[in-house]
Predict the 3D structure of the following.
Amino acid sequence: MSVSIAYLGPPGTYSEAAALAYVNTLAPQEDSQSWLCPCPSIAQTLHSAARGQSDLAVVPVENSIEGSVVITLDMLWQLDTLRIQQALVLPVKHALLSRALTLEAIQRVYSHPQALAQCQEWLEKSLPSVQLVPTNSTTEALHYLDQDFTTGAIASQRAALLYNLPVLASTINDHPDNCTRFWVMGKKPSSGGSYTSLAFSLPANVPGSLVKPLQVFAARGINLSRIESRPTKRSLGEYLFFIDLEVNTSISSVQAALLELASYTEILKIFGSYSVLEFDSPVALND
C-alpha cells in the first residue's frame, strides 16, 4: 500500500514534522509506503487531497498559544469531500535562525503569522525594533538568510539542520509547553475514535438561535471540548460554528443528537470521528 501525504512546505515545517509523525504510525502496517508532497499554502494542501492529487493532507488546526488556524477551518467548510482521519498533537519549539553574529544586527524577521504570534513576547523583549515579515510557512524565507546577514527567521531546530543554518536563539515561544494540533484529512470515511468534529450555520441570527443546538448536547451529557465561530462571509453578524465533541458518532445517543441538531441548523457538516495521538517530543522526527 502506498500513501501520498500533502503538507505545508517547504521541508522543515512543523506540518512536515506532523506528517512524518503520522508516517511513523503507519510503519507497522505491512507493505505500507508513504511519500510526502510539499505544498505552498494550507489551502493548496487541502485542495491537493480534495482533488485526489494526494491521498491525505496534514494541516494545523489549533495552537495552544494562538488558538485556531482559521484558514484550515474556512477551507474545511468549503470542501465537502474531506473527512478527518486522525488528530496529531505535537510540541512546537521555535528557534531564531540567522547568520547574524548578534541579535542587535537583525533588522527583519520572517516567519508564518502563527509562529510570529507565538513568539510575540520574546520578539517585543529581545528584538523590539525589527520588521516582522509574514510568510506562507516557517521555512519559505530561509533562503534570504544566506543573502542578507541582517535577517532572521523563526523556524524549527529541524529546519536549521536541513538548511545548515545557525540557531541564534532557541525555545523562543512565549510558553514552554507550546503545542499544535494537526488534522490528517482524506476523502475516505473517518476511521472512528473518541472525538468528533462538526460545523453548522444557523437559519437566522435571532436570540436563542445558538442555545438550541448547544442544548442538544447538554441534554445528553455530551461534552464539547471546543467551540469556534467564523464569519459566513455572506453578511456582517452571520457566523458558522465549529464544534469538537468528546464522543464517537457510532453511539446511538450521539446519532440522535445529530439528528435533532440538523433540525435547528441551516447547514450541518460532520467531519468525522477520530482518535488523537499525542507526541511528547519531536526528537524522533529529526532523523
